Description:
This protein is of the alpha/beta class. Helix content is 48%, strand content 16%. The chain has one domain: P-loop containing nucleotide triphosphate hydrolases (Rossmann fold).
Amino acid sequence: MKINKVYVLGAPGSGKTFLAKKLCRILNIEYFDLDDIFWEKKYSVKRDEDERDRLLQKIVKKKQWIVEGVYTSWTGEVVKDSDLVIWLDSPTHVLMWRIFSRYLKKKDKESLNSTLTLLNYVRNYRKKGQDSGYFKHRKLIEKHDVNFVYIKNKEEVNNFLKNFLKKLDR
Length: 170
Protein backbone atom coordinates (compact mmCIF):
# COMPACT_ATOMS: atom_id res chain seq x y z
CA MET A 1 0.00 0.00 0.00
CA LYS A 2 1.40 3.39 -0.98
CA ILE A 3 0.59 6.19 1.46
CA ASN A 4 1.11 9.76 0.25
CA LYS A 5 -1.59 11.70 2.11
CA VAL A 6 -2.38 11.13 5.79
CA TYR A 7 -4.83 12.98 8.01
CA VAL A 8 -4.45 12.54 11.78
CA LEU A 9 -7.41 13.84 13.76
CA GLY A 10 -8.61 13.70 17.32
CA ALA A 11 -9.27 15.77 20.42
CA PRO A 12 -6.66 18.08 21.92
CA GLY A 13 -4.10 16.03 23.82
CA SER A 14 -4.79 12.83 21.89
CA GLY A 15 -1.27 12.64 20.44
CA LYS A 16 -1.96 13.98 16.94
CA THR A 17 1.22 16.03 16.74
CA PHE A 18 3.35 13.20 18.16
CA LEU A 19 2.00 10.70 15.63
CA ALA A 20 2.08 13.12 12.68
CA LYS A 21 5.72 14.02 13.35
CA LYS A 22 6.61 10.34 13.73
CA LEU A 23 4.91 9.55 10.40
CA CYS A 24 6.66 12.53 8.83
CA ARG A 25 10.04 11.03 9.73
CA ILE A 26 9.10 7.47 8.76
CA LEU A 27 7.49 8.33 5.43
CA ASN A 28 9.66 11.37 4.66
CA ILE A 29 6.54 13.43 3.93
CA GLU A 30 5.98 17.07 4.90
CA TYR A 31 3.80 17.65 7.96
CA PHE A 32 1.19 20.42 8.47
CA ASP A 33 -0.55 21.45 11.69
CA LEU A 34 -4.07 22.81 11.07
CA ASP A 35 -3.60 25.21 14.00
CA ASP A 36 -1.04 27.05 11.85
CA ILE A 37 -3.71 27.48 9.19
CA PHE A 38 -6.63 28.31 11.50
CA TRP A 39 -4.78 30.84 13.67
CA GLU A 40 -3.05 33.94 12.33
CA LYS A 41 -1.62 34.47 15.81
CA LYS A 42 -1.67 31.18 17.72
CA TYR A 43 -4.74 30.83 19.95
CA SER A 44 -5.58 34.55 19.91
CA VAL A 45 -6.27 35.82 16.36
CA LYS A 46 -8.20 33.63 13.92
CA ARG A 47 -7.22 33.73 10.28
CA ASP A 48 -9.71 35.04 7.71
CA GLU A 49 -11.75 32.06 6.40
CA ASP A 50 -10.93 32.73 2.74
CA GLU A 51 -7.22 32.89 3.48
CA ARG A 52 -7.47 29.77 5.65
CA ASP A 53 -9.23 27.90 2.84
CA ARG A 54 -6.62 29.04 0.29
CA LEU A 55 -3.80 27.83 2.55
CA LEU A 56 -5.52 24.47 3.03
CA GLN A 57 -6.07 24.09 -0.73
CA LYS A 58 -2.35 24.66 -1.36
CA ILE A 59 -1.60 21.75 0.97
CA VAL A 60 -4.30 19.43 -0.42
CA LYS A 61 -3.00 19.96 -3.97
CA LYS A 62 0.47 18.71 -3.01
CA LYS A 63 1.45 15.20 -4.04
CA GLN A 64 2.26 14.19 -0.46
CA TRP A 65 1.34 15.51 2.97
CA ILE A 66 0.60 14.65 6.56
CA VAL A 67 -2.02 16.93 8.12
CA GLU A 68 -3.07 16.88 11.75
CA GLY A 69 -5.77 18.72 13.62
CA VAL A 70 -8.96 18.77 15.60
CA TYR A 71 -11.06 20.77 13.12
CA THR A 72 -14.06 19.34 11.26
CA SER A 73 -16.20 22.02 9.62
CA TRP A 74 -13.65 23.02 6.96
CA THR A 75 -11.49 19.90 6.57
CA GLY A 76 -13.70 17.62 4.47
CA GLU A 77 -11.38 18.06 1.47
CA VAL A 78 -8.45 16.77 3.54
CA VAL A 79 -10.37 13.65 4.56
CA LYS A 80 -11.64 13.05 1.03
CA ASP A 81 -8.13 13.29 -0.47
CA SER A 82 -6.41 11.20 2.22
CA ASP A 83 -4.93 7.79 1.54
CA LEU A 84 -5.22 7.15 5.26
CA VAL A 85 -7.18 8.82 8.07
CA ILE A 86 -6.11 8.08 11.63
CA TRP A 87 -8.50 8.98 14.43
CA LEU A 88 -6.86 9.16 17.86
CA ASP A 89 -9.47 8.83 20.58
CA SER A 90 -7.81 8.67 24.00
CA PRO A 91 -9.83 8.53 27.25
CA THR A 92 -10.93 11.89 28.68
CA HIS A 93 -8.75 11.65 31.80
CA VAL A 94 -5.66 11.03 29.62
CA LEU A 95 -6.50 14.01 27.38
CA MET A 96 -6.97 16.29 30.37
CA TRP A 97 -3.72 15.19 32.00
CA ARG A 98 -1.76 15.71 28.76
CA ILE A 99 -3.19 19.20 28.23
CA PHE A 100 -2.49 20.22 31.82
CA SER A 101 1.04 18.76 31.67
CA ARG A 102 1.72 20.60 28.41
CA TYR A 103 0.62 23.84 30.05
CA LEU A 104 3.00 23.29 32.98
CA LYS A 105 5.89 22.66 30.57
CA LYS A 106 5.11 25.62 28.28
CA LYS A 107 3.62 28.28 30.58
CA ASP A 108 5.53 30.96 28.73
CA LYS A 109 4.03 29.90 25.35
CA GLU A 110 0.50 28.83 26.26
CA SER A 111 -1.89 30.97 28.24
CA LEU A 112 -3.99 29.70 31.10
CA ASN A 113 -7.12 30.82 29.17
CA SER A 114 -6.28 28.70 26.11
CA THR A 115 -5.47 25.74 28.38
CA LEU A 116 -8.80 26.07 30.18
CA THR A 117 -10.59 26.28 26.81
CA LEU A 118 -8.91 23.04 25.71
CA LEU A 119 -9.73 21.31 29.00
CA ASN A 120 -13.38 22.34 28.65
CA TYR A 121 -13.48 21.09 25.05
CA VAL A 122 -12.03 17.73 26.11
CA ARG A 123 -14.42 17.45 29.06
CA ASN A 124 -17.33 17.81 26.63
CA TYR A 125 -15.78 15.85 23.75
CA ARG A 126 -17.94 12.73 24.20
CA LYS A 127 -21.19 14.39 25.25
CA LYS A 128 -24.20 13.20 23.31
CA GLY A 129 -25.44 15.34 20.50
CA GLN A 130 -24.35 16.72 17.18
CA ASP A 131 -22.25 19.48 18.73
CA SER A 132 -19.77 17.16 20.44
CA GLY A 133 -16.29 16.84 18.96
CA TYR A 134 -16.59 13.06 19.00
CA PHE A 135 -19.79 13.15 16.93
CA LYS A 136 -18.27 15.63 14.46
CA HIS A 137 -15.14 13.51 14.01
CA ARG A 138 -17.21 10.37 13.47
CA LYS A 139 -19.49 12.10 10.93
CA LEU A 140 -16.52 13.57 9.05
CA ILE A 141 -15.00 10.11 8.59
CA GLU A 142 -18.31 8.40 7.77
CA LYS A 143 -19.07 11.00 5.10
CA HIS A 144 -16.11 9.91 2.97
CA ASP A 145 -15.07 6.46 1.78
CA VAL A 146 -11.52 6.45 3.17
CA ASN A 147 -8.94 4.04 4.51
CA PHE A 148 -9.39 4.62 8.24
CA VAL A 149 -7.69 3.53 11.48
CA TYR A 150 -9.17 4.12 14.95
CA ILE A 151 -6.63 4.24 17.80
CA LYS A 152 -7.62 4.47 21.48
CA ASN A 153 -4.36 4.57 23.43
CA LYS A 154 -0.56 4.81 23.37
CA GLU A 155 -0.13 1.03 23.13
CA GLU A 156 -2.29 0.97 19.98
CA VAL A 157 -0.24 3.86 18.53
CA ASN A 158 2.95 1.87 19.11
CA ASN A 159 1.42 -1.28 17.59
CA PHE A 160 0.19 0.71 14.61
CA LEU A 161 3.64 2.17 14.01
CA LYS A 162 5.35 -1.19 14.47
CA ASN A 163 3.01 -3.41 12.42
CA PHE A 164 1.08 -1.36 9.94
CA LEU A 165 3.85 0.85 8.66
CA LYS A 166 6.08 -2.18 7.98
CA LYS A 167 3.66 -3.10 5.22
CA LEU A 168 3.99 0.16 3.29
CA ASP A 169 5.66 0.33 -0.10
CA ARG A 170 8.19 3.12 0.19
